[in-house]
Amino acid sequence: MMSIKAIDCDVHPTVVDIRQLLPHLDEYWRDSVEERGIGSLETAAYPPNAPITARPDWRGQNGYAATTAAELVSQVLDKWDASHAICNCLYGVQLVYNEDMARAFHRALNDWIAKEWLDRDPRLRASIIVPMQNVEYAVDEIERCAKDKRFVQIMVLAMQEVPLGRRHHWPIFAAAERHGLPLGIHAGSNYRHPVTSLGWPSHYVEDYTSQAQGFQGQVTSLITEGVFAKYPKLKVVLIESGVTWLPGFLWRFSKFWRGARTEIPWVDRSPAEIVRDNFRLTIQPFDAPDRADDVERIIEHLRSDDMLLFSSDFPHWQFDGDARMPKGIPEGLRRKILVENPLATYDRLNLAPAKESAR
Amino acid sequence: MNMEVRQPLRAQKTRYGIVDCDIHPKLLIEDFRPHLSNQWWAHLQTYGLRPRHGFAKTYPMPKITPQAARRDAWPPTGGLPGTDLDFLRQQLLDLYDMDFGIMNPLSPTGQGDQNGEFSAAMSYAANEVQLEVWARREKRLKASVVVPYENPEASAAEIRRRAGNKDFAQVFMLSRTAEAHGRRRYWPIYQAAVEAGLPVGIHVFGYAGWPLTNSGWPSFYIEEMTEHATGQQAVVASMIFEGLFEQFRDLKVVLIESGFGWLPALGWRLDKHWERMRDEVPHVKRPPSEYIREHFWVSTQPMEEAEEPEHVIDAMRWIGFDRILFASDYPHWDFDDPFLALPPSLTEEQRAMIYAGNAKKLYGLA
Fold first, then answer.
1. CA-to-CA distance for A252 and B260, rounded, in angstroms?
2. What's the CA gap between A122 and A149, in Å, rounded?
3. Which ipTM was obtained for this model?
4. Are A327 and A24 spatial neighbours (Cβ–Cβ below 8 Å)?
5. What is the pLDDT of residue A353?
6. How far is A246 from chain B (nearest CA, A)?
7. Which pTM was predicted?
8. Cβ under 8 Å to A: B residues 296-315
9. Is residue B231 part of a domain?
10. Which of A173, A277, B315, B365 sits between 20 and 30 A of B199, alpha carbons compared?
């Protein structure tokens, strides 16, 4: 472990063209894509040309970034000297309305990730993208992909049709716990509801910044519904969530739990404690204040050294330059964030490198 | 009953002249009768209030106590909590030796009603009732101008009607509106508020017609309460990114009953992503946190309680001690006791600002 310098817990392979998925679709859906002219599933959460979607120096000739494993390996693994990178593909299969179509595209996407990315570099790992359109299909997809140990977590979007903690989602958490897979919640929406509880905002920057509100709602839902009373070993990773909102949110949530806990008697510990035990966050974007001493205060407000996981969020444009860590992160915490916390979160990273897929 | 516990603490060493920025008088519907036309009175009797949710007589999320009230706030004379002026004097204004209290009436006021004309008639009546039943009888109590915010033109007219009347301290909106507060449709409200020299108070609650979270409807009252902070985050972001404060440089906004622990991080997040995407919002000239620092005030209740109290002081420092207003939320269950709620390690000067000085300056109270 001492030889490991960094584990990048959030990178994004890009699907440039839906035709890349055709080899991984069955005949019916392959035909449907052609016959119906089903176009790009890119999501409005990351408009292709928006600055956040790709850092300018990471975009290729066609304007896209992170289009091949080779690109990602040289720009992430080599640059940050990372032993692993976890691929979280954000192609908008979650937005699809037809459950069966959603299942087909989720399967295709996971298979594409395995073949075009994981097979091409032994340092790459990935999240299983699951079709929340149908819980049965979601569990099937987890069972199908979990056999391949290079899939190290389950990934869903921050904004869902129904809050994540709701009981009909629980078979997904049972499957996660059974396979030792953390539940990764990544920024994004399936756009079943406006991105704010006050309707659709005028600007994309409001859409992006409102992701933090989605995360607050999901943490609240998972805890209030009693997910951690039922699945105490379940780990949840908030990915590209921002970090600095968490302490203030927990003050409020823990206070209302103290005042109104008779409503949710199965929650027998303070939400702040549950979050420290069961939740982790990737560090980009950090959404930090300018002054380093304020950043140190924020880190102290988290009251845990175990919660933050290194991420570059490649190729999203969260920072310039090559520094791995936002400024102000205390020296003593760096190795925890870069290596130890990721290894403690993702059990499957501790397995011997799996050269060959079990699929 | 909590009275016995609080009684021995009455004698505060320093007299602060507290201003309570969030008191909820319960307006009685029968008091509206003289101020509504026959048509609207009949409408009210026949169709009732129609906020943007499905329950005809109650709230979507049952409260944690009846009327969401303190168990000891039911007047001995009968009636609902917040209906008896003498009892409110006894339990609040006199007990804590307050200089002023800002009244923020919640339902029934007709705010956010699906019928915009009815909402306007109800708002007018709610303001008359505040004057008649409360503010004219107790000069320490200041009314808020209830506006039918989904009917902005009528809102502006209501503000102009009340402008210059010192019994009113602010314009009153709820946080859950049909569109986010910065959107152009609401600008006539802010225009009129600025002209009248009144701050705009945005109190949590209301029904937007959208789910309480951007992932749909949650199950629990606790979630409704925590989600008030996320709603206010959308309010602040919208007001800034729509360029509201470039248009209305004198606009002052008070965020009520949403706590404040979330505000510094919101400012940092908006700053970071504004910097990256400012070409989308060229009308936003300065980092969002600067607009927050200049245009927003927060009320304390529900007072933030961190596991380590000093962390709350950090948040107050980041917001600015001159922007924080004491509020009790009387008579509701999550009432903050004026003598117990503020962190003990505040300096005397900070304490005096939060209890009274900031509010007196903001609302022009003397």
1. 9
2. 12
3. 0.96
4. no
5. 57
6. 8
7. 0.96
8. 302, 304-308, 311-312, 314-315
9. yes
10. B315
